[in-house]
Amino acid sequence: MTLKTFIDFSGWTAAALILGAYALLSFGKIQARSPVYQWMNIVGAAGFIINCSANGAWPSVALNIVWLVIGFYALRRNAR
């Protein structure tokens, strides 16, 4: 796999994960406090960080870093 393919794959996978998490939550299939929801958002944010960094989309990188941190915080808080 070339670097460009990896970067593109990261972006498309991130989009699918975050949209999938939102759809599952919206249709009542998962709860916002569930680890599945949080992990989908965390991995999705990481994929967007990779893709957006490679494409120089720095505002999106910043947004997704915050998204990732929120996901980890929620995962940790909900585990208690």
What is the gist of this entry?
This protein has 80 residues and is mainly α. Helix content is 82%, strand content 0%.
Summarize the structure in words.
The chain is mostly helical and 80 residues long. The protein has a domain at 26-80. Helices cover 82% and strands 0% of the residues. The chain has 3 helices and no strands. It has helices spanning 3-26, 35-54, 58-79. The longest helix has 24 residues, at 3-26. The chain is globular, with a radius of gyration of 13 Å.
Rg calc: 13 Å
Structural class: mainly alpha
- Can you write the helix and strand succession as a string? HHH
* Average pLDDT, all residues: 97
Shape call: globular
Distance between the termini: 40 Å
List the total number of helices. 3
Strand content: under 5%
Main sheet: strands, sense, barrel: none
The residue fraction in helices comes out at over 70%
Low-confidence stretches: none
Number of E strands: 0
Set out the fold topology.
Layout: H1 3-26, H2 35-54, H3 58-79
Helix pairs in contact: 1-2, 2-3
Which features characterize this protein?
80 residues, mainly alpha, 82% helix
